[in-house]
Each structure stands twice: as structure tokens, then as C-alpha cells.
Specification:
- There is one protein chain.
- With 281 residues, the protein is mainly α.
- The chain has two domains: 20-95, no CATH class; 99-280, Orthogonal Bundle (Hypothetical protein af1432), CATH 1.10.3210.10.
- It is built from 17 helices and no strands.
- The chain has helices at residues 5-15, 21-30, 37-44, 48-58, 71-78, 80-95, 102-126, 134-141, 145-153, 155-166, 172-179, 184-194, 199-206, 218-232, 249-255, 259-265, 269-280.
- The protein is globular, with a radius of gyration of 19 Å.
- The mean pLDDT is 89.
Length: 281
């Protein structure tokens, strides 16, 4: 008897490499009120790729602060929360790769960056967590992390899923359940727990198709779910997420932003995707 899908997925997750020790320590330092910019700089310097990403971001047109060459100065300008999210995003992008299909990979990440940028925009429009809007960008960026494992481990099944998704009659979680018995949301939660995702990201990963409307992390679920809907219906990428059911009006009400306002703002997202890609890739 062959292995079950659950066993195959469990083994694949066991083989997923952990985040680097430096990234892990940067995340912990960012959450420690006693951390200084100097101690953060000393830790980041141990990772040349992360160092270059931080300097590239602070010197980008997004911040418009002139040219900074000091990592400590860059940290002081960006703030620990942005540093945390750059570190986290960089780590995820380096570990989560779709193999043997560059077209799917390109459209997948275009979609993911789009959901990240749209999530941040919706959060800002809603006045949610004004101090940390980047948290919503990261939540959107990683929302489909479980789909990467499906693409890499079940290529034959994926071909059939793409065919069904093209019919635009079923949602991707329903298609995945029908063929595999597991959805990318469920697999994403398992990967997120291995990588010690914070609860807000787990809610975005695990409940963006059926958003949670109550509880301390419900805004991440609802806003990323709304962003996923907006990106999927906007044509920003060729990524096919199957049938996308309109979100209940209750969700828009709880988010606190009128759908029409978000729709009017969507043309800005293409440039935001490019800004994010330049900063993080």
C-alpha cells in the first residue's frame, strides 16, 4: 500500500529547512523592547543578504531619505518592525521556491506580492494598526505558502487542479480537497507552525478563503481574504485561484472600508508590486 497524502505532506514538511539562526535571532530581537539599534545591526551584519536588503530598502525611493551606508542608521530610520518584516520576508522568499515551472513561479509571486500590497492598502484605508501596516503586507505575501508544497510535491495532481480551476466553478481549497484531501490553507498552517509564524500570519495563511470575523487576529484573516479577492478579480496576475466567491457584506462592514473605495485604489497596486519586488528580491 502506498503512502497516504497526509504522510507524504508530513514528510515533505519535515524536510522543509528551518529559517536561519540569524533570521530567528533578528525576529526575537525586534520583539524585545530592550534591543538597541547597535545590537540589531551587529546581528544583521552576520547575514550579508539581509544586510544588503536592509540598505537597499532604506535607500529606495519609497523612503526618500538620501543615501545611507550605515546599517545602524538604516535600522533607526526603518524601525524594528520594518526590519522584522524585511528579515521575515527575505527568509520566506529564499526558502519557498516553486521548482521546475518558472511561469507558475512568476505568476504565483506576482499574485502574492499583489495580495501583500493590497492588504497593506486596505489596512491603511481602514485605519487598522496604523503603526505597523507592513504586518499586513507580510501576511498577504505569505498567505499562499502552502500552495508551494503542493506544486512541488504533487505535480501530476496540480496539472489536473489547473484544468479544474480553469473551469472557474470551484474554489481552490475545494479542488485541493477533492483531489488531495488537504487544502493549501491547512498545509500552510503546518508550515507556518514549523517556521514559528506569529498568530496573525497563521490566520492569514489558514483562513483567507473563509475569513474569521471574530477574535484578536480576525482583521488579518478578513483583510488578506479581501485582498486575495481583489487581486484575483483584477487581472494583476495570471495566477488562477479557481472560483472566487464574493465576500459577504458583513466582512466589508467589519473591515470598515467600502468596496468601491478599494476598487478605485486598485490601479495603484501594480506599481506597489514592483516597489516591493525591487526591495525584497
Amino acid at each position: 500500500m502506498g503512502k497516504s497524502v497526509v504522510d507524504i505532506v508530513r514528510e515533505a514538511i519535515d524536510k522543509v529547512p528551518p529559517l536561519s539562526i540569524v533570521i530567528d535571532k533578528v525576529l526575537k530581537l525586534a520583539n524585545d523592547p530592550a534591543t538597541s539599534a547597535q545590537s540589531m545591526a551587529e546581528m544583521i551584519q552576520l547575514d550579508p543578504i539581509l544586510t544588503s536588503k536592509v540598505l537597499k530598502l532604506v535607500n529606495s525611493s519609497y523612503f526618500n531619505v538620501g543615501q545611507l551606508h550605515s546599517l545602524k542608521q538604516a535600522i533607526m530610520v526603518l524601525g524594528f518592525n520594518t526590519i522584522k518584516n524585511v528579515a521575515f520576508s527575505t527568509a520566506i522568499l529564499s526558502k519557498a521556491t516553486i521548482k521546475n515551472n518558472s511561469i507558475v513561479s512568476e505568476e504565483f509571486w506576482k499574485h502574492s506580492f499583489g495580495v501583500g500590497a493590497t492588504s497593506k492598502m486596505i489596512a491603511e484605508l481602514a485605519g487598522v494598526d496604523k503603526q505597523y501596516p507592513e504586518d499586513f503586507f507580510v501576511a498577504g505575501l505569505v498567505h499562499n505558502i502552502g500552495a508551494i508544497l503542493i506544486y512541488n510535491v504533487f505535480p501530476d495532481e496540480c496539472a489536473r487542479m489547473f484544468e479544474i480551476a480553469a473551469e472557474n466553478k470551484l474554489t481552490s481549497p475545494r479542488i485541493e480537497h477533492d483531489i488531495l484531501g488537504l487544502s493549501h490553507e491547512e498545509i500552510g498552517i503546518a508550515i507556518g507552525k514549523k517556521w514559528s509564524f506569529e498568530p496573525n500570519y497563521l490566520y492569514a495563511v489558514g483562513r483567507h478563503h473563509h475569513p474569521v470575523m471574530e477574535g484578536p487576529y480576525s482583521m488579518f484573516s478578513m483583510i488578506v481574504g479581501a485582498a486575495n479577492y481583489m487581486v484575483n478579480t483584477s487581472g494583476l496576475s495570471l495566477f488562477n485561484d479557481g472560483f472566487i466567491a464574493p465576500l459577504p457584506e458583513t466582512i466589508w462592514q467589519k473591515i470598515g472600508v467600502d468596496y468601491s473605495i478599494i476598487l478605485e485604489s486598485m490601479p495603484k497596486i501594480a506599481s506597489e508590486i514592483e516597489k516591493a519586488r525591487i526591495s525584497l528580491l
